[in-house]
UniProtKB/TrEMBL annotation, chain A:
Pathway: Lipid metabolism; fatty acid beta-oxidation. One of its GO terms (cellular component) is mitochondrial nucleoid. The gene is HADHB. Mitochondrial trifunctional enzyme catalyzes the last three of the four reactions of the mitochondrial beta-oxidation pathway. The mitochondrial beta-oxidation pathway is the major energy-producing process in tissues and is performed through four consecutive reactions breaking down fatty acids into acetyl-CoA. Among the enzymes involved in this pathway, the trifunctional enzyme exhibits specificity for long-chain fatty acids. This is Trifunctional enzyme subunit beta, mitochondrial. Keywords: Acetylation, Acyltransferase, Endoplasmic reticulum, Fatty acid metabolism, Lipid metabolism, Membrane, Mitochondrion, Mitochondrion inner membrane, Mitochondrion outer membrane, Transferase, Transit peptide. Residues 55-325 form the Thiolase N-terminal domain. SUPFAM superfamilies: Thiolase-like. It catalyses: decanoyl-CoA + acetyl-CoA = 3-oxododecanoyl-CoA + CoA; an acyl-CoA + acetyl-CoA = a 3-oxoacyl-CoA + CoA; tetradecanoyl-CoA + acetyl-CoA = 3-oxohexadecanoyl-CoA + CoA; hexanoyl-CoA + acetyl-CoA = 3-oxooctanoyl-CoA + CoA. CDD domains: thiolase.
TrEMBL record, chain B:
In the central section; belongs to the 3-hydroxyacyl-CoA dehydrogenase family. In the N-terminal section; belongs to the enoyl-CoA hydratase/isomerase family. The active site is at residue 510. It comes from Sciurus vulgaris (Eurasian red squirrel). GO terms for molecular function: enoyl-CoA hydratase activity; long-chain (3S)-3-hydroxyacyl-CoA dehydrogenase (NAD+) activity; long-chain fatty acyl-CoA hydrolase activity; NAD+ binding; transferase activity. Heterotetramer of 2 alpha/HADHA and 2 beta/HADHB subunits; forms the mitochondrial trifunctional enzyme. Also purified as higher order heterooligomers including a 4 alpha/HADHA and 4 beta/HADHB heterooligomer which physiological significance remains unclear. The mitochondrial trifunctional enzyme interacts with MTLN. The record marks 498 as: Important for hydroxyacyl-coenzyme A dehydrogenase activity. Residues 364-541 form the 3-hydroxyacyl-CoA dehydrogenase NAD binding domain. It is found in: Mitochondrion inner membrane. This is Trifunctional enzyme subunit alpha, mitochondrial. The record marks 151, 173 as: Important for long-chain enoyl-CoA hydratase activity. NCBIfam families: fa_ox_alpha_mit (TIGR02441). GO terms for biological process: cardiolipin acyl-chain remodeling; fatty acid beta-oxidation; response to insulin. The gene is HADHA. InterPro entries: 3-OHacyl-CoA_DH_CS, 3-OHacyl-CoA_DH_NAD-bd, 3HC_DH_C, 6-PGluconate_DH-like_C_sf, ClpP/crotonase-like_dom_sf, Enoyl-CoA_hyd/isom_CS, Enoyl-CoA_hydra/iso, Fa_ox_alpha_mit.
Length: 475, 763
């Protein structure tokens, strides 16, 4: 979950010209930007396991991810989720009655629709006989939705499950204070006028101060941006490195958008407004402009700014997941297999955002793969500093030995395979919906560029993390 | 025992770490090697910023001793002379300590006030130069920044501190009976305002970094970092240095102003302080408060007020002069020597001289969830010990669990811990009614009812379920441990751990070993006590051990004095006037009259006439009437919930009347009454040393001050004998002996000391 930034990239003066410096090794991105990656067609072993059903992604979509407070601002979360579901129905033409179950991930819950999956499903015209539930696991909520679906299918309970995620940061539940709520509840129970008056007499003006949804980690009271800034400092990631990485993300996203590679995006006709067709947070700027921003969390000398953090985003995503045999029986040509996955967790104070570092080697080991086997990396970018800290952690023997219980480092991630269609920094990060975007990006990149394995990883509040192997479905 | 709640201020000593042996080996050859590299202070240059690193070798802390000072000035002179260097950062290479203070031993070696004044003036000159430095110096503070360390920091142009728990700022000199003598009394009021400066200097309190930022004591905070590609502490110091270097350059480029934006309240306070009338009112208020609290027994606080006043009213030159002179005077006072002695004693009692136990205690079990049991559980879970708390009833257990929770929750209210940390600490506590899990216990501390047969019963029950290595500790204030151990199958594993109430506030732990207690058992008990944050004395078994045994004759005398017609209020004011934090009658009420009666009877039997004097019948009658002290609402005083004022219990009059003794005018002056109480205490303490109950006088002093509230300004019974003179005490005892007999007969060791004036408990 990205912490709430006071202002976002839209405040950055946008210039069409952007400059990249290639001085910093892991960030030099000339090759990806200039040369189209060579299509690789390897034939590696497949990760199918005996006696376990193969599980496939038929397809997945998302509505455009928008800066919060823009076109989706008057909607409710289930509206976005519904739009994603309708988009999925249209894209896959799946008959509604084939869908056995629906799961959505979300983080900041709208209390009126706390099981947003059910409300969206009903609204999207799914059968009222199709059960739905909602999961939450911070930024990896929709990953949890997908892996729950995997579990349900693998264990033979269902054949067809829709998994998705939604987040609407344009509106968040702001509550009355606990004292006020208590008084209101007691008032409800008061029987006589006397009781009511005596309750009212206890009213104090400070009862009216509202309670905002927590932006801070509950266990540590630290906001995520603050933690990210400390993490960047702990790994000695400079401000320049962070700005360069953010610029890379925006540049690559812009390129992908312009070339029409973001094929998971489905248009959304917003009631009473225009039809939204593309993500609106992609704004490549210049290093000079970015350097002007003041630190957003650790003032006045921190390094995390609005420009190198992911911004508050509205959006929703949905995926059609099936048992392979079922998909084939229905006549589908699936896009990818969902293979091994892991969840990890670590110290929520000092290692809040290091989930990918822990999850990556674990999922590789589980799948019997090495870093070299992976053709496509799709990591969630909460902050530039967080991504770069994870890079450095994975490239450090000291960290591996002292904190991960490994003999050697995980290794340097190949940047030419990493998030080359942009990431959460540029495309946006609707907390509950990002996981499905990552998996679809990996699947679509594998299809386009011809690799076999994709590795998806993400960090999440609470000091948790996730990684999953996505295997391309043979063409 | 409640006794020394009021000397809680001494708690803060622990942060004022000044080591005795440090770097002497270096001193010998430092003369020859000075040209090559310095021992304590070095510097490197980053761009045009000099980074000065203080790192005294072979020590956990940096202290401002002569070598550090001279090396620092050498370095500063080079920096001032360099064309390349435009600014500097001052940092310690030791995580956890910036500069812990001045070297306390510099003072110990002073023979005259003038010598101490010279030390102060040297410091003043050094910091004045630093303050007037043409090149800005940024103090990068991580860890303790105390006393001379803080004075060094506030002479710099800018301060950046790490926001962690180890980083504390303060001027604890007052706790050692002296004052901040290197410009602190003059700079602090200008920096944080007069009221806050008085508060810091008069209480000696430690200020955490975030508070220091709010007060304006530091300009910026740096967050502590987690692990990166090197250990967190190392990287945090590095980061602090990087940030400080940036600020140092910023100060040179004028991008950063060393002036702080003051809030409205601060501005108003500052304005108010320009009015002489307001200033006078503040001096007066503070002075009255200090006089009331110290009863004139501690000279340092009044001199601090004096010196600050001089600086503000007559200008800095006069202020600095007054500071150094008063510093010299204070350093030579008995009070300072007593307090410094206590400091050293406390350092000593924070070490485990029995070595590391064979097995670390990881699982602790506490029997009895009463006031003591729950208190013991609280200080244990607080330090991460898994603790089983067993009681016999759900209600009793629930009360104990609530006490632990409340203790932790109070810390949350004071913002010492977060509510999340509270919950996680509280999860270390497992409440239960049976012996489940005792098979894993490494130590069992019983705090059940003070009755030998009950103690025997639980000892047998516990021994049936605990593993062989498990230590059985008994928390008792008077029952002899060997009697408790008599029914044990493994007496070498039985030991006494005498905690003081309230356990979470009282620092003392008295550990009692019997003839049979093994050394490893003792090591284990001390290790647990230290983990619980206690100051520990280890004494031999005997009736009343050390602390209770000293208290008993004193209380007996108190009863006699009351019988002689001195009213409790008068007696209280006489004892507090002597330096006891709690008056003698109030003390009895706080401890509990029934407990006092119990102890008086037990020890009376054991020691006979020597413990006589007052008639125990007085306590007996009080108990039978239900006057048990504070806990029953009535004792010598009447206690009302929520009311601080207590009035005398008029129902006591008939009891006093029935037991009235004629006062002996020759020994009933106010001073005589004070000395009758104190000399019996002191005589008994010395006798404990003579009999080998106590191993060292230092433990005797720490036990008396931290457990019983013996006047800290006297430094404890042994320091008192040394400073006051054994002969004078023997003379007094003889005088009272003539009036009352055996109870005042001085013990042989005391007589020996009186006979050879060169003989001291502390050489």
């Amino acid at each position: 979950m990205t912490s709430i930034l006071t202002y976002t990239l839209k405040n950055l003066p946008s210039t069409s010209k952007w400059a990249l410096k290639f001085s910093v090794r892991p960030l030099s991105c000339s090759s990806q930007l200039l040369a189209a990656p060579a299509a690789q067609t390897k034939s590696k072993k497949t990760l199918a396991k005996p006696n376990i059903r193969n599980i496939v992604v038929v397809d997945g979509v998302r509505i455009p991810f928008l800066l919060s407070g823009t076109s989706y601002k008057d909607l409710m979360p289930h509206d976005l989720a519904r739009a994603a579901l309708l988009g999925l129905l249209q894209r896959t033409s799946v008959p509604k009655d084939v869908v056995d179950y629906i799961i959505f991930g979300t983080v900041i819950q709208e209390v009126k629709t706390s099981n947003v999956a059910r409300e969206a499903a009903l609204g999207a015209g799914f059968s009222d006989k199709t059960p739905a539930h909602t999961v939450t696991m911070a930024c990896i909520s929709s990953n949890q939705a997908m892996t729950t679906a995997v579990g349900l299918i693998a264990s033979g309970q269902y054949d067809v499950v829709v998994a998705g995620g939604v987040e609407l940061m344009s509106d968040v539940p702001i509550r009355h204070s606990r004292k006020m709520r208590k008084m209101m509840l007691d008032l409800n129970k008061a029987k006589t006028m006397g009781q009511r008056l005596s309750l009212l007499s206890k009213f104090r003006l400070n009862f009216l101060s509202p309670e905002l949804p927590a932006v801070a980690e509950f266990s540590t009271s630290e906001t995520m941006g603050h933690s990210a800034d400390r993490l960047a400092a702990a790994f000695a990631v400079s401000r320049l490195e962070q700005d360069e990485y953010a610029l890379r993300s925006h540049s690559l996203a812009k390129k992908a958008q312009d070339e029409g590679l973001l094929s998971d995006v489905v248009p959304f006709k917003v009631p009473g407004k225009e039809t939204v067709t593309k993500d609106n947070g992609i704004r490549p700027s210049s290093l000079e402009q970015m350097a002007k921003l003041k630190p957003a969390f650790i003032k006045p000398y921190g390094t995390v700014t609005a420009a190198n953090s992911s911004f508050l985003t509205d959006g929703a995503s949905a995926m059609l997941i099936m048992a392979e045999d079922k998909a084939l029986a229905l006549g589908y040509k699936p896009k990818a297999y969902l293979r091994d996955f892991v969840y990890v967790s670590q110290d929520p104070k000092d290692q809040l955002l290091l989930g990918p570092t822990y999850a990556t080697p674990k999922v590789l080991e589980k799948a019997g793969l090495t870093m070299n086997d992976i053709d496509v990396f799709e990591f969630h970018e909460a902050f530039s500093g967080q991504i770069l800290a994870n890079f450095k952690a994975m490239d450090s023997d000291w960290f591996a030995q002292n904190y991960m219980g490994r003999k050697t480092k995980v290794g340097l991630l190949p940047l030419e395979k990493f998030n080359i269609w942009g990431g959460s920094l540029s495309l946006g990060h609707p907390f509950g919906a990002t996981g499905c975007r990552l998996v679809m990006a990996a699947a679509n990149r594998l299809r386009k560029d011809g690799g076999q394995y994709g590795l998806v990883a993400a960090c999440a509040a609470g000091g948790q993390g996730h990684a999953m192997i996505v295997e391309a479905y043979p063409k | 025992m409640v006794a020394s709640r009021a000397i809680g201020s001494l708690n803060r000593f622990s942060a004022f770490r000044i080591l005795r042996t440090r770097g002497y080996s270096f001193r010998n050859f430092s003369g020859s090697s000075a040209l090559l590299a310095r021992t304590h202070v070095n510097y490197g240059v980053k761009g045009n910023v000099a980074v000065i690193r203080i790192n005294s070798p072979n020590s956990k802390v940096n202290t401002l001793n002569k070598e550090v000072q001279s090396e620092f000035m050498e370095v500063m002179n080079e920096i001032w002379a360099s064309d390349q260097i435009k600014s500097a950062v001052l940092i310690s290479s030791k995580p956890g300590c910036f500069v812990a203070g001045a070297d306390i031993n510099m003072l110990a070696s002073c023979k005259t006030p003038q010598e101490a004044t010279n030390i102060s003036q040297e410091g003043q000159r050094m910091f004045e130069k630093l303050e007037k430095s043409p090149k800005p110096v940024v103090a990068a503070i991580s860890g303790s920044c105390l006393g001379g360390g803080l004075e060094l920091a506030i002479a710099c142009q800018y301060r950046i501190a790490t926001k962690d728990r180890k980083t504390v700022l303060g001027v604890p000199e007052v706790l050692l009976g002296i004052l901040p003598g290197a410009g602190g009394t003059q700079r602090l009021p200008k920096m944080v305002g007069v009221p806050a400066a008085f508060d810091m200097m008069l209480t000696g309190r430690n200020i955490r970094a975030d508070r220091a930022k709010k007060m304006g004591l530091v300009d910026q905070l740096v967050e502590p970092l987690g692990p990166g590609v090197k250990p967190p502490e190392e990287r945090t110091i590095e980061y602090l240095e990087e940030v400080a270097v940036n600020f140092a350059s910023g100060l040179v480029d004028k991008k950063i102003s060393p002036k702080r934006n003051k809030g409205l309240v601060e501005k108003l306070t500052a304005y108010a302080m320009t009015i002489p009338f307001v200033r006078r009112q503040i001096y007066k208020t503070v002075e009255d408060k200090v006089r009331k609290q110290t009863k004139g027994l501690y000279p340092a606080p009044l001199k601090i007020i004096d010196v600050v006043k001089t600086g503000l009213e007559q200008g800095s030159d006069a202020g600095y002069l007054a500071e150094s002179q008063k510093f010299g005077e204070l350093a030579m006072t008995k009070e300072s020597k007593a307090l410094v002695g206590l400091y050293h004693g406390q350092v000593l009692c924070k070490k485990n001289k029995f070595g590391a136990p064979q097995k670390d205690v990881k699982h602790l079990a506490v029997l009895g969830a009463g006031l003591m049991g729950a208190g013991i559980a609280q200080v244990s879970v607080d330090k991460g010990l898994k603790t089983l708390l067993k009681d016999t009833t759900v209600a009793g257990l629930g009360r104990g669990q609530q006490q632990v929770f409340k203790g932790l929750n109070d810390k949350v209210k004071k913002k010492a811990i977060t509510s999340f940390e509270r919950d996680s600490i509280f999860s270390n506590l497992i409440g239960q009614l049976d012996y489940q899990g005792f098979e894993k216990a490494d130590m069992v501390i019983e705090a059940v009812f003070e009755d030998l047969s009950v103690k025997h019963k639980v000892l047998k029950e516990v021994e049936a379920v605990i593993p062989d290595h498990c230590v059985f500790a008994s928390n008792t204030s008077a029952l002899p441990i060997n009697e408790i151990a008599a029914v044990s199958k493994r007496p070498e594993k039985v030991i006494g751990m005498h905690y003081f109430s309230p356990v979470d506030k009282m620092q003392l732990l008295e550990i009692i070993t019997t003839e049979k207690t093994s050394k490893d058992t003792t090591a284990s008990a001390v290790a647990v006590g230290l983990k619980q944050g206690k100051v520990i004395i280890v004494v031999k078994d005997g009736p009343g051990f050390y602390t209770t045994r000293c208290l008993a004759p004193m209380m007996s005398e108190v009863i006699r004095i009351l019988q002689e017609g001195v009213d409790p209020k008068k007696l209280d004011s006489l004892t507090t006037g002597f330096g006891f934090p709690v008056g003698a009658a109030t003390l009895a009420d706080e401890v509990g009259v029934d407990v006092a009666k119990h102890v008086a009877e037990d020890l009376g039997k054991a020691f006979g006439e020597r413990f006589g004097g007052g008639n125990p019948e007085l306590l007996g009658q009080m108990v039978s009437k239900g006057f048990l002290g504070r806990k029953s609402g009535k004792g010598f005083y009447i206690y009302q919930e929520g009311s601080k004022n207590k009035s005398l219990n008029s129902d006591m009059d008939s009891i006093f009347a029935s037991l009235r003794l004629p006062a002996k005018p020759e020994v009933s002056s106010d001073e005589d009454i004070q000395y009758r109480v104190v000399t019996r205490f002191v005589n008994e303490a010395v006798m404990c040393l003579q009999e080998g109950i106590l191993a060292t006088p230092a433990e005797g002093d720490i036990g008396a001050v931290f457990g019983l509230g013996f006047p800290p300004c006297l430094g404890g019974p042994f320091r008192f004998v040394d400073l006051y003179g054994a002969q004078k005490i023997v003379d007094r005892l003889r005088k009272y002996e003539a009036a009352y007999g055996k109870q005042f007969t001085p013990c042989q060791l005391l007589i020996d000391h009186a006979n050879s004036p060169g003989k001291k408990f502390y050489q």
